[in-house]
Amino acid sequence: MVTNVTSENTTENSPGDFTPRQEQILDKALELIRAEGLAGLTMRKVAGLMGFSEPAVYRHFKTKQDLVLGIIRRLEISLIEPMQVIAAQAQRPVIDRIGDILAHHLDLIADNNALPILLFAEASVSPDERLGQAMARVFGTYENLLQSLIREGHESGEINPALPADDGALILLGAPTACALRLRLLHDVSQKTRRQRLVQFIKSEILQPMEVK
Question: Is the pLDDT of residue 191 over 60?
Answer without folding.
Answer: yes
